[in-house]
Amino acid sequence: MSGHTGEHADPAVAFESAKLGVWTFLATEVLLFGALFTAYTVFRMQYPEMFRVEHAKLDRVLGAVNTVVLITSSLMVVLGVDAIKRGKARLFEACFGATILLAAVFLCVKYVEYSGKFHHGIYPRTNIFFSIYFMLTGLHGVHVLLGMGLLSYVIVLSRRGRLSADYFTPAEMSGLYWHFVDLVWIYLFPLLYLVG
Amino acid sequence: MESGNDRGYLTERGWRSWAFTLDHKRIGAMYLWTTIFFFLVGGVFALLLRLELLSPQAHYFSNHTYNVFFTLHGSMMIFLFIIPAIPSGLGNFFIPLHIGARDVAFPRLNLASYWVFAAGFLVIIGSLVAPMDTGWTFYTPYSAKSAAAVTTLSLGIFLIGMSSILTGLNFLVTIHKMRAPGMTWHRLPLFIWGMYATSIIQVVATPVVGVTFLLLAAERLLGVGFFDPSKGGDPVLFQHFFWFYSHPVVYVMILPAMGIVSEVIPVFSRKPIFGYDAIAYSSLAIAFIGFLVWGHHMFTSGMSPLANAIFSFLTFFVAVPTAVKVFNWIATLYKGSITFESPMLYALTFIFLFIVGGLTGPFLGALATNVQLHDTYFVVAHFHYTMMGGTVMGFFAGLHYWFPKMTGKMLNEKVARAAWALVFVGFNVTFFTMFIAGTRGMPRRYAEYLPKFHTENVISTIGSAVLAAGILVMCWNFVQGLRKGAPAPANPWRALSLEWKAASPPDTENFHEIPVVTEWPYGYGTPKA
User: Fold this and answer.
1) Is pLDDT of B450 > 90?
2) How far apart are the C-alpha atoms of B142 and B228, rounded to whole Å?
3) b/e for B396-410, b at 16 or more Cβ within 10 A?
4) Which residues pair with B507 in a beta bridge?
5) Whole-angstrom Cα distance, residue B387 to residue B56?
6) Summary mean pLDDT of chain B
7) Is residue B518 part of a domain?
8) CB pairs under 8 A between A and B
9) Residue B527 belongs to some domain of the structure
10) Is there a contact between B210 and A42 if contact means CB atoms under 8 Å apart?
């Protein structure tokens, strides 16, 4: 069964394969969000006035706070991956732990925003702008949630001593994914909160 | 040469050895069984449609039942058979063998993709409690309002799409990173080039249809109004999203089949493939241009005349790389020592039928004739000539070509040829008459039709019975081959690509030692020019 343990004979090839795989996966994610961004473009051109009026109902301060929170979480990922490359497993776990914590803060703020909207009778069906708002931020929120699970899994791997300065593929790959999730928000914030 | 295996990768028994296998060959085999099953089920629905069309009035089923049947026929054939059959089935089995690897790059992901696929078809079967009647294209606004289980079916297709993405991603990385020493890009079998282009389309296009089905579900569950004109949305946007995937995906269906034909033709002509580079790069060209032509499905949907003209113009470009392939296959046959074993018969049938299907494409790509022929049986005939006459014939060619390798047993060649004759005659009788009915104005997707189309429909239904008989004989031959076929040698067709250097059936690790490649796989008769 030598061919089917799921492991590669050559660790360098394995790392390169994983990297290519994750970048390809991120390309599919760009397309996934791309369809929604296309819908955004189409409807904003069609209803510029609606976008200008409706976007004012979003809370810019909370949006800005969340932007800072996510950017900080990405910084933590960078520090974490750097730590594991130098073999510092405890520091790595602390950094990734901080990322998960910040992700939780992000989702809490999102919860406050969503429930505020529902409280004022604003739902996805209210109008096209809020359809787009809820679909985009909802899909992004699901990605944050999945990312938290992924990062937790990598921390567990590290706790079990599976990661080291010689083998840090899961840390680097989950980090790439997290940066992508962060990047999507960096587009979402101005497009939804700062229409102007 | 490998030897001394007793049933190779098939040695281990019991359901766990299949359900939890990481062996690409077993996963490929599971895909083959599953997709062939849905091919037969989808075929039964097709026969029921043909039965209904024997008479001009709705006779056996209600209009609604007829709508359900053509929706199920289309959805099953597209999503559960023709998209996964060659890539996930034969591709899984033969990509690692072709490139001299022990497995794909991510074996666990490979198994996961099968089980995501299985979850998808279970959800789709679950949606049969309120079966779909929208056609396989799910056009809004009807699909957003229909009482059928559209949401459930959307979820199922989302899962199928996810499985397709995972498979495509796995293959891309495998072809990039797992090639044996000396296996340069220009020594790759053309099947691999076809699969590479296919994987790119799967990875790039599928996420868009995934999100489209999510939006359709959100439309129904949350009242989101992207596609609903009463909320300011636009139903044509749904068509754009849908065809942005569903047009490129016809090349997911055809490119792997073209790859198989490129393998089979030189083996049974005993000649090097003509125009290797042209065939290889035309696969990539088809994948690229295929992304720019989706609008030709929407000429009558209310796009601007300028957009219509641009999409029409671009559509003609796809014909160029496609024709390049056909010319090269024919040039390969020229002065070859051709023998007509069953894989070759199906490969030649592919070329013949695909020329008919391909050349009727420009009729539909041209704006003026499109408006005349839109939604008539001409369209039905056109895509059955390309999809069934093309892809399915290529799939059959692959099944007959690789049956000895996959199972270690030989097929009964006489029965295989008899089945081919029935399939060939039945197919043409069924679908050529549809061209005639279509040009005379018969619209598709109705249980009833004007009496003046009666003759065509009777002929077509008779043809469908012959076609079904041929496929039954072929399946019976497969079963007989599996049960009591003569043991297959490692290389029954005297072919040169790497899979034939492995045992029949291959061992679990494919090769005892990873082969070192020194030449291309088409050196039949003469060295590479």
Assistant:
1) yes
2) 10
3) bbbbbbbbbbbbbbb
4) B510
5) 27
6) 94
7) no
8) 120
9) no
10) no
Instruction: Identify which of B173, B211, B225 has the shortest CB distance to residue A35.
Output: B211
CB proximity B359 to A under 8 Å = no
Instruction: Say yes or no: B210 contacts chain A, CB-CB below 8 A.
Output: yes
Amino acid at B384: H
CA distance A25 to chain B (A): 7
**In-domain check, residue B524:** no
> Does the residue B515 lie in any domain?
no
B226 and chain A in contact, CB less than 8 A: yes
Give all domains of chain A, ordered by start, each with its CATH number.
Answer: 12-193 (1.20.120.80)
Residue B99: both structure tokens together: 């490139």
Q: Provide the number of structural domains found in chain B.
A: 1
pLDDT digit string (tens) for B145-162?
888 889 999 999 999 999
* Model confidence pLDDT, tens digit, residues B391-435: 999 999 999 999 999 999 999 999 999 999 999 999 999 999 999
Q: Place B529 in a pLDDT band, splitting at 50, 70 and 90.
A: very low
Whether the CB-CB separation of B104 and B191 falls below 8 Å is answered with no
User: Per-residue confidence at A9, pLDDT binned at 50, 70, 90?
Assistant: low
B453-477 residue pLDDT tens? 999 999 999 999 999 999 999 999 9
**Structure confidence at residue B137 (pLDDT):** 87
Q: pLDDT by residue (tens digit) across B340-370? A: 999 999 999 999 999 999 999 999 999 889 9
Q: Among B190, B90, B113, which residue's Cα sits nearest to residue B406?
A: B90
Calculate mean pLDDT across residues A77-96.
97
**8 Å CB contact of B169 and A28:** yes
In this predicted complex, what is the ipTM? 0.91
What pLDDT is attached to residue B90?
97
Domain that holds residue B309: 18-501
Residues of A in contact with B225 (CB under 8 A): 125, 127-128, 131
Among B21, B204, B224, beta carbon nearest to A125? B224
Query: Which residues of chain A have a CB within 8 Å of the CB of B205?
Result: 31
- Chain A neighbours among B 228-257 (CB < 8 Å)? 231-234, 237, 241, 244
Which percentage of chain A shows pLDDT scores above 70?
95
* Region for residue B302 given its phi and psi (left: phi exceeds 0; alpha: psi -120 to 50; beta: otherwise): left
Measured between alpha carbons, how far is residue B154 from residues A25, A106, B148, B218, B356 in Å? 22, 30, 11, 10, 34
pLDDT value for B3: 46
pLDDT tens digits for range B383-397: 999 999 999 999 999
Could you tell me the CATH number of the domain that includes residue B37? Answer: 1.20.210.10
Which pair of structure tokens corresponds to residue A159? 């706790």
**Distance between CA B39 and CA B34 in Å, rounded?**
9
Q: Average of pLDDT values for B224-246?
A: 92
Which 97-126 residues of chain B touch chain A by CB within 8 A?
Answer: 102-103, 105-109
B contacts of A38 (beta carbons < 8 Å):
241
* Secondary structure (3-state) at B376: strand
| pLDDT above 90: residue A12 | no
Q: Six-digit token pair at B448?
A: 């009833």
- Cis status of the peptide bond prior to A11, with omega within 30 of 0: no
